[in-house]
Design brief:
alpha+beta; four-stranded antiparallel β-sheet; globular
Length: 90
C-alpha cells in the first residue's frame, strides 16, 4: 500500500490515541497520548499497523517481541502512566 504521509488522515489514530491541545499539554503544538496502558501490546501493535510514522527504535529500547508496535517506536516518549507519540502531526 503506497501512501503520501503528507496526506495521511490522523483521525484513524483516535482509536488508540487522544490528542491534547497545546493548552492542555506541556508541548507547544499538543501531544498524542496512548489511550491504553503501556503494557497493552495488542493495542500497541494494532495502532502501529495503522501508523505511517512508525520508526523502529534501537533494539535495546524495544519492549515488545513484535517489531511493529508503538512501544518499539523511536517516536514514543514514556510518561509516568503511559506514553505519547511524537510522530503523529499536531
Amino acid at each position: 500500500m503506497e501512501s503520501n504521509v503528507d496526506e495521511y488522515d490522523c483521525s484513524v489514530m483516535l482509536t488508540w490515541f487522544m490528542f491534547r491541545p497545546a493548552s492542555q499539554s506541556g508541548s507547544s503544538s499538543g501531544s498524542w497520548i496512548f489511550r491504553f496502558s503501556s503494557d497493552n501490546v495488542v493495542q500497541s501493535r494494532l495502532a502501529a499497523s495503522h501508523c505511517h510514522y512508525f520508526m523502529a527504535d534501537d533494539e535495546d529500547e524495544m519492549l515488545d517481541d513484535k517489531l511493529l508496535s508503538c512501544v518499539n517506536c523511536m517516536r514514543r516518549r514514556w510518561l509516568v502512566d503511559g506514553f505519547e507519540c511524537y510522530g503523529l502531526p499536531s
